[in-house]
Write a structure and sequence with these properties.
The complex is a heterodimer.
Chain A lengths: L3 E5 L3 H12 L3 E6 L2 H8 L5 E4 L5 H6 L7 E4 L4 H13 L5 E6 L5 H6 L4 E4 H13 L7 E4 L4 E7 L20 E8 L2 E3 L12 E7 L3 H9 L6
Chain B lengths: L1 H6 L5 E5 L3 H12 L3 E6 L15 E4 L5 H7 L7 E4 L4 H14 L4 E5 L6 H5 L4 E3 L1 H16 L4 H6 L1
Parallel strand pairs in B: 1-2, 1-4, 2-3, 4-5, 5-6
The chains are: A alpha/beta, B alpha/beta.
Chain lengths: 225, 156
Amino acid sequence: MKTQVLLIGGRNKAKSLAISLIHSGYRVTVINETYEDCLKLAETDKLRVINGDGTKPFVLEDAGASDVDIAIAMTSKDEDNLVICELCKKRFHIKKTVALVTDPQKTDFFYKMGIDSVVCAITAITGIIEQQAFIDKMATLVPIREGRVSIAEVPINGNAAVVGKKLWEINLPKEVIIGCILRGDTTMIPRGDTRILAGDMLVLISSDKQEMAAIKELTDEAVIL
Amino acid sequence: MESFAGKIASSDYVVIVGCGRLGANLANTLSENGGNVLVIDKDKEAFRKLSPSFGGLTIVGDATDFDVLGEDAQMGKANVVVAVTNNDNINIIVAQIAHEVFKIRQVIARLYDPDRECVYREFGIDTICPAILSAKEIEKILSKNDGKDFYEEAEK
């Protein structure tokens, strides 16, 4: 049987997510409170649309919540998303619940209340903007768990101050390690006495949002006297 | 109302979220009985419902905001939190934040929709549902009159 996904709230977000999920072979149902939004959503092929307040148990029941595998609450109100996910979990025993949250401070609280996955749009967007701003210094940044841990690829230019230094000589933030050095065709797991050479690609693993400080330390150019 | 107010010790700190008819009424009664009361509402105008003799504090702000609850309202020091806004979902999130984050033992939330009540009972949050209370009360009145003739009643 196809995996069933229930999307609650969100107009454009819900539509583009629904299209992408249907394309990947999921069965998707959308609940939306506004009738006009429902009409717009209903233009999508194979999408089941239900007009109603997703925070009400009977609306969720009408949407067939008992057979749903994944519920995603993406209304604009944090309190509604919390209630939707809690109802899905407690009343309809949905295995996986995902909530969108506006206020970054509530992320931990939502996890504490038993929601399986909490996505904070603000945290995600500021993360992307930060990454874009540093794009010349960094190839990719992979955030894990809301960006609490991230993996970044950092290319080392010939004129960076760290070239020729051993790892233990570099003043990296505590929460950062260099997990791997890609040098030409070889891959090496560095030790404290490994020297960084020009043209190296470093793979950084960092927690606690320390990656920017680490990248700055690694890519800052040497001061020519 | 009197019996509830009577149980609140004068040193107790009660936070009421939502200054509607119920919130304001409760705040007035508790304040008259010497309790320390703080009322939060997002609308400044709502505080007009408080009586002129109301001796507690008021905060204009979003009661689901951790900064408003933690710093402005000193929620951590509260003995009792009562969530009585006109939005069920806000009452639920406020009650859960009070219970889980600020570890308040006595948390009461008003829920208009009795359908949602069963889900929250297990969280250790007391919920009151006006529709159910009213229905019970009406039933009580009806059962009192049971078997009696209404004309008889009127003659007395």
